[in-house]
Design goal:
The complex is a heterodimer of chains A (about 270) and B (about 200). By secondary structure, chain A is mostly helical. Chain A has helices at about 1-10, 25-30, 45-55, 70-80, 90-110, 120-150, 155-160, 160-165, 170-190, 250-260, and strands at about 220-225, 230, 240, 245-250, 265. A 3-stranded antiparallel sheet of chain A has the order 4-1-5. In chain A, a hairpin with a 5-residue loop joins strand 2 and strand 3 (about 240). Chain B is α+β, with helices and mostly antiparallel strands and about 200 residues long. The radius of gyration of chain B is 25 Å and the shape is elongated. Chain B starts with 8 loop residues before the first helix and ends with a strand. The chains are: A mainly alpha (about 270), B alpha+beta (about 200). Chain A: Belongs to the GINS4/SLD5 family. Chain A: Keywords: DNA replication, Nucleus.
Chain lengths: ~270, ~200
């Protein structure tokens, strides 16, 4: 828990800047002067490590090491805002889920142990609540991807580049989904039509194509996490984004920056 | 019965239904007769095209108009069906993936075409397969509308739902009772309308 860590620090006689209310944590990520007290919400055992490492990096402007939960939260937000399907974070997800499982098991053991004190029961409750909240984010993340995969299922099945960004399970779901949707169209509509009309892939002139593709020109809000290389906007103007800069622009312009983690979508 | 109709008029009616469905946020009854009439229109148009194509002569301009009508009708038919299955999938997720719950509702069931029922069954098994990847740690079909703030929740039983296993042991939920239970244990019952949060 973060207050545990703070308590430890206070006992050790180190000055502690108490983290403010949660709604300002965003700006805290980009601030370096008082990072010591800003120990992010996260999974307890990793927090201490994360906090220490963070302190070591105070001098270094570029790298801020994020806890797995913070990483997931960032991927989750990016995924929710990007029109395209972003690369799957399989390792991160697996390690977080393992951690959740271990923590749930530990909680179960402690709860059944009659010698667990009242104070510890309160802590257990906090841990359980946190576990539920992390699960919520994981769920929302997985479902956001699933929604996009279903929407673009036919596109996914024909595009090798997108397929590389999916997990095996997601890929299976995409092909199953494309199959049952096609089948549904076929039995409800296409089989009744004359032979010449019963295909799903015609490309008449002046009509949008039948296979839905991600619309990369959709505008997104971009928050620069560090000094970004110069980007060229669709109207030809150049833009240098300073750290902390926020802009609205088409997704296609910042696609690479999102992939490299230099910006986040908000 | 002779009606003077423009090409594509029926398809416009079909699209209006999808539109209304979105605007009123309701699932409308599957319009089987309209879909059939459009399919019939498509066959007639195809015949008209074949009649126009005579070997050795350049295709007459009317061909272009008929071809456009065919393309448009087809897209409208597909859009109608695709809009409906999107809507059905939304409803499916809104009840936490409880397909039997959805299909046992007579009101909803009567609005679906038999093909749509098949589709939902297949979709359900596809989602269940995907879900099994995660089942040890979490249930991905649970609600994602509001992040959990408390572990426990006070619920009011709206419909009898029998004996449910919770962390406090098994509880028999009977209509009218109130319980303080762990949210994760009974969330799906809230979603399906058996319990209400107080």
């Amino acid at each position: 828990m973060d207050w545990d860590t703070q308590y430890e620090l206070m006992k050790a006689g180190r000055p502690v800047t108490v983290a403010g209310p949660s709604h300002i944590t965003r700006s805290d990520h980009t601030r370096h002067d008082s990072d010591e007290g800003d120990i992010p919400m996260g999974l307890p055992s990793r927090d201490q490590e994360g906090g220490r490492r963070r302190a070591d990096f105070l001098v270094d402007e570029e790298e801020v090491i994020l806890t797995p939960l913070e990483q997931l939260t960032r991927h989750w937000m990016n995924e929710r805002h990007a029109p395209d399907i972003l690369p799957a974070q399989e390792d991160l997800l697996t390690s977080l889920l393992d951690h959740l499982r271990r923590q749930s098991e530990a909680v179960q053991l402690l709860r059944e142990d009659p010698s667990t004190s009242e104070e510890e029961h309160i802590r257990i409750m906090l841990v359980q609540t946190e576990v539920e909240r992390v699960k919520f984010i994981v769920r929302s993340y997985v479902r956001t991807r699933l929604f996009k995969i279903e929407k673009y299922a036919r596109f996914v099945t024909t595009n090798a580049e997108v397929q590389r960004r999916l997990t095996a399970a997601e890929l299976d779901h995409a092909s199953r989904h494309a199959k049952i949707t096609d089948q549904h169209f076929y039995v409800s509509v296409l089989q009744g039509l004359p032979e010449k009309q019963s295909h799903l892939d015609d490309t008449p002139l002046f009509v949008p194509p039948m296979v839905t593709e991600p619309d990369k020109s959709r505008p997104v809000f971009v928050h620069a996490l560090k000094q970004c290389p110069r980007i060229r906007l669709p109207d030809g103007a150049a833009l240098d984004m300073e750290k902390g800069h926020i802009s609205l622009m088409p997704y296609a312009v910042v696609e690479q920056l999102v992939a490299r983690g230099e910006v986040e979508l908000i | 019965m002779t009606e003077a109709r423009q090409y594509g008029e029926l398809a416009t009616q079909l699209l209006m239904e999808s539109r209304r469905s979105t605007q009123t946020d309701t699932l409308m009854k599957y319009n089987d007769s309209l879909v059939r009439s459009i399919i019939r229109e498509q066959r007639d148009l195809e015949k008209a095209i074949n009649a126009l194509l005579i070997d050795g002569r350049p295709p007459p301009p009317a061909l272009l108009i008929i071809q456009t009508a065919i393309n448009r009708n087809k897209r409208c038919l597909l859009a109608y069906h695709s809009h409906r299955v999107d809507r059905l999938r939304d409803m499916y997720w809104a009840v936490g993936g409880a397909l039997p719950h959805l299909l046992s509702n007579q009101d909803i069931r009567s609005k679906l075409s038999p093909h749509e029922v098949d589709y939902m069954r297949q979709y359900n098994s596809s989602v269940m397969e995907f879900r099994s990847e995660f089942s040890h740690e979490l249930d991905i079909t649970a609600s994602i509308t509001n992040p959990p703030k408390d572990l426990h929740v006070l619920v009011h039983v709206v419909k009898d739902c029998g004996v449910i296993q919770t962390e406090l042991g098994s509880i028999h939920f009977e209509k009218g009772q109130r319980f303080m239970v762990r949210r994760a244990d009974i969330e799906h019952l809230i979603v399906q309308g058996f319990l209400e949060e107080v």
